[in-house]
């Protein structure tokens, strides 16, 4: 009997066949769907991980995944010394707009120990002392240094962290918040009357003598270690080994000028040595920022420390009572000499220009820095105006303005410099080249 002649039977068979086929298809699609779903979820998770939301938050989904999917965490620093270096380099918008160049600032005030580039130097000087057997942690050794503030703060912080004591000699005309901070960091502080370097009472000579006295009179075999930031090779080498390479990497080697002041001279020398070498002595210009009262401007520009009117026998002991702290000096240090031949030019900055620049940075960019950083920024603007439009010029922001409240920033307030301004060049009385 043919099924064609019996529609009912045919219909029943067709339904049964369709039902079986449906079951088989469903089972097949289930496996297929599982594979597709698995691929989709993996792609979705990958996309989510790459999103800014994933990078800035903890993903709940990550915790529900297999324990085999572990996010590799960065290495955790060992101690406060592990927080030194790798400071950001950022663009200062207002200065870039005023000059037509890209003005970049190395935020050295974000170093994690003492909050200045001196963290790098202090750590390197301690390491050098340990390598030479002059410092041993935990036996009462004391680090002595003559400083106007920042190096002392870095040394005091790191001394405690690494098992030493700190003794700081500093001029008594420096801001009181620096010596107050040193006391709170556990350092012994001796403030002295400013004197020429030829005097035994100069703060650097005094620190050297105190270290010698400690070692000679010690009953517990502890030693006094004179860090000697002005002459120690550990100073400029700290910047050859860290600050210079960081700037090179952060700019991709694309930099037209670097501007910095000099106190010990380690920062500008170390960075100049590294950048000039790795950029193969290209057109990169190294420019010194020098405050009034310092002799380094004349040394770079004219080859002598002083002009004819300031020659020995005719000049005053203290040339100018500048309000700027941390940069400017009237002698040549070993650290400055290491990089002096690499310095192409110098810019002289007045106290008034520095104070106006410091106020401008707060008003326009929300950047609150100290006097040496303000000097650097004025010189950077002058240097940028002498370069082709679009040039990239970098400088250093050394420390926070909180260390300069009682002197530098107090003077800013007294002079009524806290109003709004719109023309930077007019404010600083700088003429743009025609």
TrEMBL record:
Cofactors (names): pyridoxal 5'-phosphate
Key words, A-Z: Membrane, Mitochondrion, Mitochondrion outer membrane, Transferase, Transmembrane, Transmembrane helix
Any coiled-coil regions, as ranges: none
GO molecular function: cysteine synthase activity
Gene3D superfamilies: 3.40.50.1100
The reaction(s) this protein catalyses: O-acetyl-L-serine + hydrogen sulfide = L-cysteine + acetate
Major subcellular location class: mitochondrion
UniProt keyword Transferase present: yes
EC number: 2.5.1.47
Source organism superkingdom: Eukaryota
InterPro entries: Cys_Synth/Cystath_Beta-Synth, P-phosphate_BS, TrpB-like_PALP, TrpB-like_PALP_sf
Subcellular location: Mitochondrion outer membrane
Domain Tryptophan synthase beta chain-like PALP span(s) in chain numbering: 81-399
Key word Transferase present: yes
CDD domains: CBS_like
Recorded topology in the membrane: Single-pass membrane protein
Recorded GO CC terms: mitochondrial outer membrane
UniProt record similarity statement: Belongs to the cysteine synthase/cystathionine beta-synthase family.
Name this polypeptide is given: Cysteine synthase 2
């Amino acid at each position: 009997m043919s099924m064609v002649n019996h529609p009912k039977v045919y219909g029943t068979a067709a339904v049964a066949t369709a039902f079986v086929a449906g079951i088989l298809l469903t089972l097949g699609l289930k496996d297929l769907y599982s594979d597709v779903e698995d691929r989709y979820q993996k792609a979705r998770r990958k996309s989510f991980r790459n999103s800014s939301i994933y990078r800035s938050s903890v993903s709940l989904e990550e915790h529900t995944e297999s324990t085999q999917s572990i996010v590799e965490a960065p290495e955790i620093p060992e101690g406060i010394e592990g927080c030194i270096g790798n400071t950001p380099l950022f663009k200062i918008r207002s200065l870039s707009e005023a000059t037509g160049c890209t003005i970049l600032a190395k935020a050295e005030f974000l170093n994690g120990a003492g909050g200045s580039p001196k963290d790098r130097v202090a750590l390197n000087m301690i390491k050098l002392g340990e390598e030479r057997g002059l410092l041993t942690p935990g036996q009462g050794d004391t680090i002595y240094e003559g400083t106007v503030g920042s190096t002392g703060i870095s040394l005091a912080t790191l001394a405690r962290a690494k098992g030493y004591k700190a003794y700081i000699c500093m001029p008594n005309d420096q801001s009181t918040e620096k010596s107050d901070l040193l006391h709170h960091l556990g350092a012994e502080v001796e403030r002295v009357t400013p004197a020429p370097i030829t005097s035994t009472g100069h703060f650097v000579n005094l620190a050297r003598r105190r270290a010698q006295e400690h070692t000679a009179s010690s009953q517990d075999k502890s030693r006094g270690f004179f860090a000697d930031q002005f002459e120690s090779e550990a100073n400029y080498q700290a910047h050859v080994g860290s600050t210079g390479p960081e700037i090179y990497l952060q700019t991709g080697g694309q930099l037209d000028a670097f501007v910095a002041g000099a106190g010990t001279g380690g920062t500008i020398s170390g960075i100049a040595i590294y950048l000039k070498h790795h950029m193969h002595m290209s057109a990169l210009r190294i420019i010194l920022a020098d405050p009034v009262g310092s002799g380094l401007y004349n040394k770079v520009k004219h080859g002598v420390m002083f002009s004819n009117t300031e020659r020995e026998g005719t000049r005053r002991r203290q040339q100018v009572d500048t309000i700027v702290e941390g940069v400017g000096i009237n002698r040549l240090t070993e650290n400055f000499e290491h990089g002096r031949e690499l310095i192409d030019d110098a810019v002289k900055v007045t106290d008034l220009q520095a104070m106006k620049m410091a106020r401008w940075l707060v008003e326009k960019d929300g950047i609150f820095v100290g006097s040496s950083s303000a000097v650097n920024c004025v010189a950077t603007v002058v240097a940028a105006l002498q370069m082709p439009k679009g040039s990239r010029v970098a400088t250093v922001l050394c420390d926070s303005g909180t260390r300069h409240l009682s002197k530098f920033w107090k003077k800013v307030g007294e002079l009524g410099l806290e109003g709004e301004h719109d023309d930077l060049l007019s404010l600083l009385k700088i003429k743009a080249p025609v």
